[in-house]
Amino acid sequence: MKARVTVMLKQGVLDVQGEAVRHALGSLGFAGVAGVRQGKVIELDLDGADASEARVREMCERLLANTVIESYRIELA
Amino acid sequence: MKAAVITFPGSNCDRDLAIGFERAGFEVVRVWHKDTALPAATDVVGVPGGFSFGDYLRCGAIAAQSPVAAAVKAHAARGGYVLGVCNGFQVLTEMRLLPGALMRNAGLKFLCKTVGVSVEAGSAFTAGYTGGQRIALPIAHHDGNYTIDADGLARLQGDGLVAFRYTDNPNGSMADIAGVLSDNRRVLGMMPHPERSVEAAHGGTDGAALFAGLMGGMALA
Fold first, then answer.
1. Between 20 and 30 A from B1 (CA), which of B98, B103, B147, B216?
2. pTM for this structure?
């Protein structure tokens, strides 16, 4: 089972790296970039009998995301 | 008094932290992150600065899941002292032994300089300073921007758990916070490096009073 986890800073948390990217895009001449937020994509390849979305959720809560400042979403393939 | 200083793969301030404790009279034992128990009769655990696990995923995230983590949490749960410096502070927030999180510096640059810090809260760690004393300590970090939710901040400030504040905020930390204490004031996390300011050759000795004060403060407690 393959799972793709996307981890982003929560809305309302200042994303300084996203802001840096926004400025860089502006400097390159791309107009109209109102906002940029940068996150992480983690791809998991699971082959155990207990591979499940619930398991991936547990991985997110325990390690893949810091839920103090990050939110995550899970896509299964 | 015994200090146990942990080394993770990528820790690079463990030796300096050990020396900081030694110079204040602690017996120091070095602990490897894969050890599942702390030395018997450990009084304070030192979690050092550096780049544990290369800062992979998030600073301190993987170190916080090391085999030794359970022993550190149990030590803190029964009232043991823990000092986390820089990457160590990041590890302690990831272990949830301290609230909040450390994010990328607001200015995006890695900061490596001496900064002014004011000593705020009372604790065994700050016993060697007077309230409001201004000291100078080195910082060396890319991810020292302290953040916490509004309720958490109100609690920290209301309960007097902010141990240190920057006098001229270098990294965007909320409320200029440079170090925080746990509810029982026995766990301290701080971004500045007291262990890099304990002898004249360091260019300053303001950090020495933290270790000396801790030695005295723990002996009384």
1. B98
2. 0.96
